[in-house]
Each structure stands twice: as structure tokens, then as C-alpha cells.
Amino acid sequence: MRKQYETIIGLEVHVELATRTKIFCACSTEFGGAPNVHTCPVCTGMPGSLPVLNKKVVEYAMAVGLATNCRITRHCKFDRKNYFYPDNPQNYQISQLYAPICRNGFVEIETAAGKKKIGIHEIHMEEDAGKLIHDEWEDCSLVDYNRSGVPLIEIVSEPDMRSAEEVIAYLDKLRLIIQYLGASDCKLQEGSMRADVNLSVRETGTEKLGTRTEMKNLNSFKAIARAIEGERTRQIELLEEGKSVIQETRRWDDNKEYSYPMRSKEDAQDYRYFPEPDLVPVDISEEWIEEIRSKQPELRTVKLIRYKKEFDIPDYDAEIITGSKHLADLFEATTAICKKPKKVSNWLMVETMRLMKELDQEPEDLTFSPENLAKLIELTDAGTINHTVAKEVFEQIFKRNVDPEEYVEERGLKTVNDEGALRDAIAKIIASNPKSVADYRNGKEKAIGFLVGQTMKEMKGKADPTMVNEILREILNG
Amino acid sequence: MANIISDETIEYVSILAKLELSEKEKEQAKRDMGRMLDYFDKLNELNTEGIEPMSHIFPVSNVFREDEVENGDQRDEMLANAPKAKDGSFQVPRTVE
Amino acid sequence: MSLMSLTAAKLGKKIKDREVTAVEAMEDALKQIQEKEPLLKSFVTVDEEGARKRALEVQQKIERGELTGPLAGVPIAIKDNICTEGILTTCASKILYNFKPTYSAEAVKNLEAAGAVIIGKTNMDEFAMGSTTETSAFGVTRNPWNLEHVPGGSSGGSCAAVAAMECPCALGSDTGGSIRQPSSFCGVTGIKPTYGTVSRYGLIAYGSSLDQIGPIARDVTDCALLLEAIASYDRKDSTSIKREDYHFVKALKSDVKGMKIGIPKDYFGEGLDPEVSSAVLEAAHVLKEQGAIVEEFDLCLVDDELLTSKNSSSFGEDKIHPTRYAIPAYYVISSAEASSNLARFDGVKYGYRAGEYEGLHQMYKKSRSEGFGEEVKRRIMLGSFVLSSGYYDAYYLKALRTKALIRKVFDQAFEKYDVIIGPAAPTTAPKLGKSLSDPLKMYLGDIYTISANLAGLPGICLPCGRDSKGLPIGLQLLGDCFQENQILRAAYTYECARGKWNMPGAFLNRKGVIKDEETV
Prior knowledge:
The complex is a heterotrimer of chains A (478), B (97) and C (520).
Chain A: E1 5-16, E2 53-54, H1 55-67, E3 71-72, E4 75-76, E5 79-82, E6 92-95, E7 102-111, E8 114-127, E9 131-135, E10 140-144, E11 151-157, H2 164-181, E12 193-203, E13 213-216, H3 221-240, E14 249-253, E15 258-261, E16 274-275, E17 282-283, H4 286-295, H5 300-310, H6 315-322, H7 325-338, H8 341-359, H9 370-381, H10 387-400, H11 404-411, H12 419-432, H13 434-441, H14 447-458, H15 465-477
Parallel strand pairs in A: 13-14
Antiparallel strand pairs in A: 1-11, 1-12, 3-7, 4-17, 5-6, 5-16, 7-8, 8-11, 9-10, 12-13, 14-15
Chain B: H1 7-17, H2 23-40, E1 64-65, H3 75-79, E2 85-86, E3 89-93
Antiparallel strand pairs in B: 2-3
Chain C: H1 8-16, H2 22-40, E1 43-46, H3 48-63, E2 75-79, H4 106-113, E3 117-122, H5 156-163, E4 169-174, H6 180-186, E5 189-192, E6 212-217, H7 220-230, E7 260-264, H8 274-289, E8 293-297, H9 305-308, H10 326-341, H11 359-371, H12 374-387, H13 392-416, E9 419-423, H14 439-444, H15 450-455, E10 459-466, E11 472-479, H16 484-498, E12 503-504, E13 517-518
Parallel strand pairs in C: 2-3, 2-4, 7-8, 7-9
Antiparallel strand pairs in C: 1-3, 4-6, 5-6, 5-10, 9-11, 10-11, 12-13
């Protein structure tokens, strides 16, 4: 009989923090822009330059630590991690090894199998590297230090996960917590959240951990799931063949669905950590921790309870809306303006979801403003536009964040409230559809629908269907 | 010499230090390093039990910068020092196969 | 008489009094340099054009009343490991042979704000690693007192330039004695300030936890003036210390009555040249005559829990002398930090890149191996080793613990004494070419200076005599952290009592043989 294996997974999650400036210099962290325009002597490793710590980075790291039940290190320090690579301008990375800012936390995940705690070994602060662009023409690489020095936290889990499902649930949970804190937007595709997977297998029932590998270059939840399956299979095959797993770092190629060893003989993987002499320690007082704790925004579970209590919206809607910080923010901001939670929820749950699916977008990608959605709701409620027009306008709000009032005005989409014009149109429709008129009068209730439709068509959609219905009945019944 | 430095050690350290030593330099490095390590071993005469390693002389902590952008674009001045540059970037040999 | 034979204070006064202009002072400096450089080689770069331009600008500011300080218009030389915007800054290394910083070090900015005019960049041991200025990639600097001898190092170029009166003053840097030892060898005065007093922003790091920039001049007054100009709290340097007081000139009083001065017995043991020993003890005697309380003491830990615990027996004696382990601790720490600090020199962003290479790693290895000199490579290898897996605790942490004990021993000493007096080096300047062949022996020469770097203490070195070969002997005064004013006062008092100190002047025409001297 084939042996049964258990997969042991731990994660190292890097998250780019949402600070305005880099961790050790006053350069902008803004995305995009021409290469090397957001750089200075510090983040390009110029001789003689020195780092100065961005206070906001410490506060974000503390906030994430508190939200993940960690113990905050009262006297935390920075260390240098030494390795050569062109995206690392000093050829050392300022990170934390000996006294990271947070330790011993956990998050609770929920999968089909139930609830489970995933331990967090530590969270440390460090600087991101630059970007390498490969130039095929000259067969060389080009270095851009715009991202060099962007603040990161690395969240190191305990090896508590056993399946891809748990890994995804853990990542989802972390992402939600961090987004709620406003500490990062956590976009996997754009690299503001990155996960390295440490994986080993062992025969079910045994205690001793197997040799693990570390996998990098995982850019989506799907890739992570595939990589876990691929690496698990590779390791089991090795063991079945009587070979052993080598402890190494591997690069996942999602197209080939296979991982490749990253190490060359020129990399000794001996980082020679030592205390960073250019930075002083960070002492964190009880008061400071309390200050961060008190400023902590409401997290999802709390928000969910409040939504159910405060807003008259279905539980399902509340679950979905609070499942994304951005969506929840949109909901609350729009509701604050128009005071119509149910309607706001409807627009988010139906039309927004439909368009997101159609355009393959995440809630974080939504760009429309609460003001414009609120205006749309007001326009509809006031009867200024009808529902069909509203859907059309919303699509423009979704895509281009148009001002619905201006849009409706410019395109002449307002419902016509001129009763005279409407009566003229209805008279015309009655005259040209004698059969339907007769049908109605003979008790065929459905025929009125056809007549309303024809009138709306005549009015180019700008009439209020209720009003059309009323006038029609008045004339035909009269 | 109490510390005998092997060829493998010199090879390993030169990978870490990204230095390429000639055969002659390697022999010299083995001797120098062995001698210095012997000398460093003198430190073991000093009992430091219970003494905290001191990396900073003064007990200063919490030196911070506020999160405000102050730096502008200094790219061209910076790239003027680059041994090789292209398209506003530093040019290096291909980093991946 | 050349204007360059004046001290900075006197020259500054003449400029302020409109007797001479900053432009004339600079022209004289350039003339002196032109005459003396072929023999001395104290500069890596003389920025003639820039210096003239800056002198003119400063003169205009003086005339407009915008610059009124004592250093306005005074030419100054800067050690070549201190960044100067747009002026070549090489660390005397091939690996930075063409590097022009995009910014100036904070200390340089402070000097410029005070109106000092930069002439150029002085020679040094490559990356400040050395005690002779012979490891420079751009040639050796010679000692103005005797051209067959070294000027000391690593700030040998700055000290030689000041001694040879190419300029009145200079900046140096001191990681393990690199200001004080060459000051001693060249008969000039230099200060290593308390760690954190002068910003390290723009100082190309060797050992970050030990490095300090400091002034080099021909007397104590100039050093105090310069220190006052360069010292500042700098938000760009996280290890910069906000001091209560940045006024050093006020310490210049010839008065040591009641000052307690300790002479560590350990400093006068084996290995110290008898001529140096007697000159330093004579200087201590002079201070005693001026009213100081001078006494010998044992620089060791006393009344310490270490001694009362069971550990004491393991030493075979009931006293611990951590300073006897300062040299190995220093070389572990400084090499480790250097191996990391010098990693950035890789042929990617600035400086030298090898001409031919295949692939990234060969580019790194060739650029670094061809770009760095022997001593630098030796220390990078050593530093990489002591930090490598399996050795960190045994070497690096052990050295940091030793450092803690050294700090403690000085804390105890400064409870009893205001100033500690001793030599700056065990000998006077050795002959050229005699030091590099035995690195360990050369390192042992740092015995009197490195404790101050490990403990962060301020130290001053000033001339106190000459040996039988006519070479200067330096006196070192150490103070407790932030007590620069104590050592300045002691040094100033000694200087007043000692009387005129002559500088070597006429070596120029005598092929290295000193015939007579010009006066300050």
C-alpha cells in the first residue's frame, strides 16, 4: 500500500506598508514613474549616506502585531543581512533578526473543516529591494531603485498549515486584517503582498518534520495553491524513490507548474547578520502600545456585528461588504451621505458585483466615489431618472466615476414629467394599437404592459413607467 | 598557529566577500587570517560572563523621521557616477538565466 | 613669510580685519601646495579652480557682512573619505577613482557655513585602514619632518599638509586613532570628538560604531574653533547626539588648578619607546606644576561584582584589565563592520568596474579584487569570516562584550579623574616601507588610541617634544564622554606652559633633510 503523507506548511508573507515615504529616507513610495526618480543617496547606497527610521513604519508594524495577537517587543533593534545582488544597493538589507518588533501571535482561520489557530512566529520590519528589468536587446539587466527602501513587514507563521485551503484562508485573513488597519492595500498581483511558502512532507503519524524547501515568486492565490500541490508531489516522489529532499530556495514557474532551485554556487546563503550600527534601538512603551491600540480601526468581526445591528441589510450582504475593507468603506461613506443603507447595499451587491465579475476586478480596484453613488440613488429616488437609465448611468460611474447629475443633464436622460407631452404620446400609441386597446378592454390585463412599453419607446425611455401606467389606465378605463 | 585556515575556508569567505584571490594571495590570506584569529583568541582570557554585548555606546533610542516626502528627483546627478547606465537605470550583466 | 604659516585663528583675524582677502589666502595655499606636493603628496585632489571660485564668493560675503565668523576665508583641506559635492572623493582607493558625490558631508556643510574654504582632498590609508598612509592607491604621503618617514595614518595627508603649512587646518577621521596617531607623528594637534558629536552623514564608513570626524590644526585654539564649527546635531545621522553645549572655544583657559589627571600605569610598560615615555611624563609634570593633581593609577575594574563573584579566581589575579584586550576587540568589530560597509563598492552604481568579466558574479569579484588594495581586502576577508555562520558568537559578540567592559573601566576611571594622560603612539614615526609587511605588528601600534573609539571618548593629541632623530612626540589626553572642554582646557594649559612649537619649514630645498624651521 502506498504511504500516506502529511504536508507541513509555514508562510513568510511580505507586505508593503502604505507609508508616504520610504523606511529610511524621505523619498516617495509612489508607484510607477520613470526609473530611479524616487531615489536619493540613502536608497541607492551612496557612500556616506545614513538611514533614519520612518516612525509610521513602526506604528503600522505595531498595529498589525496587535491585530494578530502578537507580543510587542519593548526594545527592538535592526540588523544587517548581508548578501550581494544588484537590486540591493548597499549589498546588505536592513532587517530584524535578533529582536523583531512582534512575536508569538496567531490568527484564526475558518475552512470547511472548521476553525483553527495559525501561529505567528514573528513580524519584523525591513526594506524592500529595487527592481530589475531584463533588457533583451543588450542581454543585460537594468536596475531601478524606485522600490528600494519601500517599507515592508515580514510576517512569519509557524508551520501550522496542512493544505492549500488553509494557506489561502490564512492569507485571506491576514489581507483583510491589514487592509482594515490601512497598513497596506495587500495586492498580490502588484506585489504589495507576497508570500513565500515553506513546505515539507512527512509520513502521516510520524512526529519528525521533513526537510523543507522555500518557494518564491507566487503572484496569486491560484499560483500558491498550484505551487503547494506541485511541490508536495515533487517531494513525495523524491521520498518514494528513496531520495531525499534538499533544503533550498526554489522559484515557482506558474506557466510550467514546476519549481526550480534558485541557488548557484556563488550564493553561500550565509547572511552574516549583525546589529545595524547606523540605527539606534526602538523602545516601545506601554503608553505607545495603548495609543496604537486605541487608534486601531474597527476590525471585520466587530464591523459585521455593528452592520447587522445598525443597518437594515441582509446578513449575506453584510458578510460580503465587510469582506473587503474598501467595499465596507464605500458602503459606509455612501450611506453617510444618502442615509439609505439598503439601497447602497443593493447597488454594491448587484450592479457592482456584476461589473466587477465582467471586468475581472477585485473590490480594491473600485475607483468610483461614494458621492457619485449617493447622487445616483438620490436621482433615482426623486424620480428624476428611471431604473433602466440609472443602470446605464451607474456603469459610467463604475468605469469613469462620472458625476451622475452632469451626465444625466448632458445626455438629456431625465424622466419627462411634462404630462401634456406624455398624454400626446399615449394618445398616439392608443390610436396606432387598436388591437391591444381592445384586448385590454376585454379584460386582458397583460395588454397594458405592451402599451406602456410602446409609450416608453416613443418617449425614448425618459418617462416614468408608473406615471405612464396610470395615465393609460385612466384613459382606457374612462 | 592554533587556527589553521583551510583552502575551503578561504574559498568560502571569498564567496561571501565577493573577492577573487590569486593563489599567492590565498596563501597569504590563510597565514594572515590564522594569525589574526590566534590573536583574537586572546579575548577568551577575559571573562565576560553575564556582560551584555554593547553595540551602541550611548543608550539612545527612538530616533525617527516623520512620514513626509522631502526628496525630489536627483536621478541624473546620481547616474553620472554609474559605470554603465541605460534608460535612466544602472546597467548590469544579466541577472537571470 | 607665507600666510599659511599662520594659524587659522590668526589668518581669520587678518581676513576679518581686511588685511588680506580670502582670495589672497587661497592663492598662497595653492602656491605652497604647488611647491611642496612633489615631495609630500599630502593631497589626492587639489581643486584649484573650485577653490579660487569659492574663495572669491566667501570674500564677497565677508565684504557684504554675511560672514563674520573666525574661520571666514580660511583655507581648509578635507580628508578624502569625507564627501564633498562635485569634488572627487576617492577614499584613496582605485574603486572610487572617479567618484564625485552628489552631496556634501554635514561637517563640510557646517564648515562652509562658517566661511572656511575647501582647497582639496587629502591622502589617507585606503578606506582609512592603516597607520601609515602607505596603503593609498595614489601614492604614499611623506612626513614633513623627515621625508624618509611616514606621516602616520590614516589621516596622514591632512596631518602632513597642516604640518608642512600647505594649509592652516584640515579635517580628518578617527576610527581607531586615525587623527591622533598621525597628529603625533607630524607634530600637529588633532581631536577625536565624543562619538555622535560630529555628524557622520557623508563620512564614507569604515567602522560605523567607531568613526568620528575631527579637526586637525597647529594648535589647541584652532582645534577648538574648528570643532565648534563642525559639531552639530544632525537628524540625518541617527547616532548623532544632541549635546547640551556646542561651545568649545570658551574652554581655552590656562588653568588646571585642582584638575585631576590620571596616568595609567599600564600605558608605560613594555613596548613604549623610552624617549616617548619620558616626553609624555614630562608633560604630565608640566601640568602638575600648573596646579593639576596628577597621579598614577591602574586602569582596571575595581569594586566590581565580577571580582567578588566566583569568576575572579579564573583570572589568576584580583583585577581585570579589559583595555589589554582593546586591540583584538577593535579589529573584530571594525573588520566586521567594514566587511559590510564596503559591500556597496561593487561596480554597479559608482566607481570602478572591471574591464572584462563574464556574468554578474565575475563582475563583482573582478571589480572588487582589482579595485581594493591588499590591506582593505585583508580586513574584508577577516570581517566576513568573523561574522560567518558558526563564528559570530565566538568573535563578534565576544568583542562587543569586551567593549562593554572597556566602557565600564573608563566609567570607573572618570569617576576619579577628569583627564587621562598618555602617549598617542608607542613610537615616533617609523621609516617608510617598514610597517606593512607585518600587519599584526602594525595593529599593535594602535594600543593607546583605540580604547577611546571603543568607549566613545574624546581625545586630543598635541606635540610634547621630539626624539633624538628630531621627530615629534605626541601627548594624548582622554576625557569622559562629552567632556571635550576638560581635555581642551588641559591641552591649552599645557600648550601655554610648553611654549612655542616650531614646524618643519625648510625641508623643501633640502631633499628631506631638515635644516631649520619656520615659526608658527
